[in-house]
Amino acid sequence: MTLPDRSRPQPPALKAEVGRFRARHLSLAQGTVVTGHGRRSVLIDEQESPLAWLARRRGRDGKALISAHQLQAGERLRADFTMAHLMPRTTSTWDTPLGSGRRSGDGLMNATDSTIAARQRVHQALDAVGPEFAGLLLDVCCFLKGLEDIERERTWPARSAKIVLQLALDRLARHYGYGEETHGRGRGQVRTWVEEGESFGVE
């Protein structure tokens, strides 16, 4: 996910999309999320995501608390989690008549192909990071819990959640193929097979 330029005023279309009254209580911006189908432009509330807050904050060394590739990995997990409809319901659903006798269990019966694919991507990502980090990533990236709340719930030492989160995001970014920077030669050597005594050149 790319952070928007806050030096520019917010376009009126952003406020119109969610309503003027609600927009006054949100910090709206247009962002970009990388999904399995490519980049998508989405409307975000910058105060909602703990990852976006961490990406804007600077440590004592002047660097952001999480880097761009860590933010991108976390927001991609969140996008797949949202697309997969894995958030627990807090209200009643009236989609299926009570007398039909058909229960979908986890909802796969009525799920679309894109929903099922998103669930598979979420499970693959969590399997890749391992059980040590999966719960933390779900709490921060998907359920949007703050680090202080997590430390209190898990009785962790103060400011320890940030370190564990950075390790978890690094492993998640590695699963998605994101890197902080690319290393290698600026120009590579041309290699070819030639017969003994012959030479190869490019004009």
Please describe what this structure looks like.
The protein has helices at 12-18, 20-23, 50-56, 68-83, 113-129, 131-142, 147-153, 160-176; strands at residues 28-35, 38-45. The protein has 203 residues and is mostly helical. It has a two-stranded antiparallel ribbon. β1 (28-35) and β2 form a beta hairpin. It is globular. The two termini are 44 Å apart.
Number of helices: 8
Rg over alpha carbons: 22 Å
- The H-and-E topology, N to C, reads as HHEEHHHHHH
Largest sheet: 2 strands, antiparallel
**Which percent bin holds the helix content?**
40-55%
Strand share of the residues?
A: 5-15%
How would you state the average pLDDT, rounded?
75
Lateral strand order in the biggest sheet? 1-2
N-C termini distance: 44 Å
